[in-house]
User: Fold this.
Amino acid sequence: MINLAANEFAQKIVESDVIVLDVRTAAEFNESHLSNSVNIDVLGDYFSADVAALDKTKSYAIYCRSGKRSVDASEAMDQMGFSAIFNLNGGIIEWIDSGRDIVSN
Assistant:
């Protein structure tokens, strides 16, 4: 897992082989999220099964609200054999504080 500041994360997520993964709850995701992100709740009952179905050859840029749950998800994915994992330090809070765009509902 590589921790990235918001500006570094913004550069990473525009790469073609990077999948943006939001590991917050569905309610949090529906309220606001980064564009083109996929929601898999790290605290949900099916997190391990849902993540196991992902392509391990891809890179994953992971975020949550503040950075705690995304670290947990990154560590779990690392143990499952994912090798290209990038974590957003400070989560979506830091993303918004840095002036970056989100999708709001």
In short: The chain is about 35% helix and 25% strand.
